[in-house]
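If you are new to this repository, start here. Below is one unmodified record pulled from the training split, so you can see the exact layout before writing a loader.
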Amino acid sequence: MTPLLWIVFAVLVWNVLLTLIPVTVMIAKDFQFAASSRDGDGPEMPLWAQRAKRSSENMKENLPLFFGFAVLVHLVNPSSAQALLGAQIFFGARVLHAVVYMAGVPHVRTLLWVTSLVGAGMMASALF
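And here is the target side for that same chain:
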C-alpha cells in the first residue's frame, strides 16, 4: 500500500473509533435503550459524550471530501509528497479536533477544522 492509502486506512479506523465513543457511553448508561429501536430521547449523556457524537457526525460530513481527493490523487499522482502531507495534516487535525471538541474548547476546535480543510486543499492542489 502507498503511504497515502495508509493515511486513508488510519482515517477509516479513526472514524470507527470516534463513532464507538458515544455508542459505548450509551450502552453503559442504558443497555436496553441502546439495544432497542432508540425511539425517544434515551439516557442523559454527559456533555463530553454529546460532543463526541457531534464530532463523529462532523467527521462523517468531511469524509467524502477527503476520500474523493484521496482517490483522485491515488489515481493521478500517487507519489505526491504534497498530497501525502495534506492527508497527514487532515488526519492529525481531525484527531485533535475530536479531542478538543470533547473537551469543549470552542475556538481551537474551529481552528483545527479549518486546518483539516487546508490539508484537504493541499491534496486537491496536488492534482494540478
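Two things worth knowing about this chain: The helical segments are 3-29, 31-35, 47-76, 81-103, 106-125. The two ends are 23 Å apart (CA to CA).
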